[in-house]
Each structure stands twice: as structure tokens, then as C-alpha cells.
Specification:
- By secondary structure, the chain is mostly helical.
- The chain has 2 domains: 2-99, no CATH class; 104-206, no CATH class.
- The protein contains 10 helices and no strands.
- It has helices spanning 2-15, 20-34, 45-58, 64-74, 89-99, 108-115, 118-124, 128-138, 145-171, 176-206.
- α2 runs parallel beside α4 and α6 (108-115) crosses α10.
- The N and C termini lie far apart (70 Å).
Length: 216
């Protein structure tokens, strides 16, 4: 009976789902360590362990495939004379943004921009999708004139594409890529609009005005 109990415990342990941090370690951090990456000399073992844990948490949103791509890209980013010292977190974050940008849903402070009075303006100017793309890429609202000009340019390009693609759908000549992009654009618009509607509801409920850059 005792043996059976131990076997049951072993089975339960084997069936336990892998944690998010463990997945990042398995696909990215452990392989880099096995390649010979070593701890920076000026950081303690305990602090380094905590830093890797925070890094794993920050990258947990990435898919398995993206983490594998990250490994391929990061293995050549070692620091020091021997190019074998772990690179700083900023390097990991920069590469991660190239491979798979962090969803806006994971960045509450930026999501709040859509809930501010800037959100309805983006709806009125039909630039929600472009503002969402800008914020996801740059991790900040489009505050500069150059950013706003680029957003309006991208919005015009998107409208031209949508008009042509929808015409092709109606004619039965739309390509698979056109249909896929239409669906993707609709999904992006739905995400951003949900944030705007959350802000509208907050203002209706308590009359609170949420500051934000209104010129889009």
C-alpha cells in the first residue's frame, strides 16, 4: 500500500501542469545557461537568481515558439571579453519586443490611455488600430507630432486596404491573406474599443475625468 501511495504521488507530480516561470526557464534561460552564460561578477548569487525569476515572469506571455526564437537570438548576445556573461534585462526586453510584442492587455498603465479622454478621440478619427499598434511597439502614447502624422498615414493606408479587400470579398476574389488580415484588423479594433468603452463606463458611473492626450 505504501508503494502504491508513492506511485500515486509520483503520477500526480508528473501530471502537474508546468508553471509559466518554469516554461520560460526550460525554453530560454536553462539552454542559455547550458551554453555557458555566467553570472555578472558584481551581482550576488541571490540577487541574480531573483533577477532571472523576474525576467522569466516578464517573458511568460510569449509562446513556446517565440521563446525558442529568443534563445536563438540571445545566444550570441553574451557580454564581457569572452561574450559569455548574461546580458542585461534590457537586451532581453528589446529582443522580445522584436519577436513577440507584449500584449497591451499586460500593460495596465498604457491600457489606461485608451480609457482616458483620448480614447473617444481615436474612435472619432478612426485611428484606434494604429494607436494600438504604436503603443504596443513603443510602450508609450503617441505624444509627438511625428507620431501622430505616422498614425494618420497608417490609418489611411489601412482604410484603402480594407476598402479593396472587402470589395474582393464581395466579388469572391479575395485572397487568403486578405481575409486573414481583415479578421486580424477587426480583432485589433475590438481590443482597443473595449478599453475605450471601459473608460466611458467609468466616467458614466462616477463622473471621473481621466486625463489623456486628446490630439490624435
Amino acid at each position: 500500500m505504501a508503494k502504491q501511495g508513492l506511485d500515486d504521488q509520483a503520477n500526480d507530480s508528473a501530471e502537474k501542469p508546468e508553471g509559466k516561470r518554469a516554461r520560460v526557464r526550460r525554453l530560454l534561460l536553462d539552454p542559455l545557461a547550458q551554453d555557458g552564460f555566467r553570472k555578472p561578477a558584481k551581482i550576488s548569487d541571490d540577487d541574480f537568481k531573483k533577477a532571472l525569476g523576474r525576467l522569466a515572469d516578464a517573458l511568460a506571455y510569449m509562446s513556446d515558439q517565440s521563446l525558442e526564437v529568443m534563445y536563438d537570438m540571445m545566444r550570441s548576445k553574451g557580454q564581457g571579453k569572452g561574450r559569455d556573461v548574461w546580458p542585461p534585462r534590457a537586451t532581453f526586453y528589446a529582443i522580445a519586443e522584436m519577436v513577440e510584442p507584449c500584449p497591451l492587455e499586460k500593460v495596465p498603465s498604457l491600457r489606461g490611455w485608451f480609457r482616458s479622454n483620448a480614447g473617444p478621440v481615436a474612435v472619432e478619427t478612426d485611428t484606434l488600430i494604429e494607436v494600438l499598434a504604436y503603443i504596443q511597439t513603443h510602450k508609450k502614447p503617441p505624444m509627438s507630432e511625428g507620431a501622430r502624422r505616422q498614425i494618420h498615414h497608417d490609418a489611411r493606408e489601412r482604410r484603402r486596404f480594407v476598402e479593396a479587400a472587402r470589395r474582393h470579398v464581395a466579388e469572391g476574389t479575395a485572397t487568403k491573406d486578405e481575409r486573414a488580415k481583415l479578421s486580424w484588423l477587426e480583432a485589433r479594433h475590438t481590443v482597443a474599443l473595449r478599453f475605450v468603452e471601459e473608460g466611458n463606463e467609468m466616467r458614466r458611473d462616477d463622473g471621473q475625468v481621466h486625463d489623456g492626450e486628446v490630439r490624435v
